[in-house]
Amino acid sequence: MRELLRVLPELARLLGRLVADPALPRGARIALAAAAAYLLSPIDLIPDFVPVVGVLDDALLAAVIVDGLLNHVDRPLLLKYWPWDESVLDRVGRVAGWLSVWVPRRVKTRIFASR
Predict the structure, then answer these.
(1) What is the per-residue pLDDT across 5-29, written as a single tens digit (0 to 9) for each?
(2) With contact defined as beta carbons under 8 Å apart, do 111 and 27 qualify?
């Protein structure tokens, strides 16, 4: 938990810089903004106080966003703002891909690749 709290500011800066970059496709920008609004909102599909499954909806949404970014946004653009080693991005991408298999690829393509 301490590690997560330590990297949260860096992740917030990463997303802010990425969204501000005009090279980011419009669909990805909208998806990031919507995801941030949902994750910051006190209203959830599954309340966070429910043990284990309470954070599941947030984790799955984050996985879909990361998987979509990695598969539909130019890698050099992501690496431009990624603060850690590229191998960390690859590991995060593998986990996100595994968690987001329930979202059809065509849906992610439609969301993230639109201009």
Answers:
(1) 577 778 788 888 999 999 998 889 9
(2) yes
30 three-state secondary structure? helix
In 83-113, which positions are buried (b, 16+ CB within 10 angstroms) versus exposed (e)? Answer: eeeeeebeebbeebeebbeebeeeebeebbe
pTM summary value: 0.81
Give the integer Cα–Cα distance in Å for 12 and 106.
28
Q: How far, in Å, are 5, 51, 75 from residue 48 at the CA level?
A: 17, 7, 33
Q: Are the C-beta atoms of 65 and 78 separated by less than 8 Å?
A: no
One-letter amino acid identity for 38? Y
Q: By CB neighbour count within 10 A (0-12 exposed, 13-18 middle, 19+ buried), where does 22 fall?
A: exposed
Number of domains comprising the chain: 1
Q: Are 114 and 26 a contacting pair, CB within 8 Å? A: yes
SS3 83: coil
Domain span including residue 18: 2-112
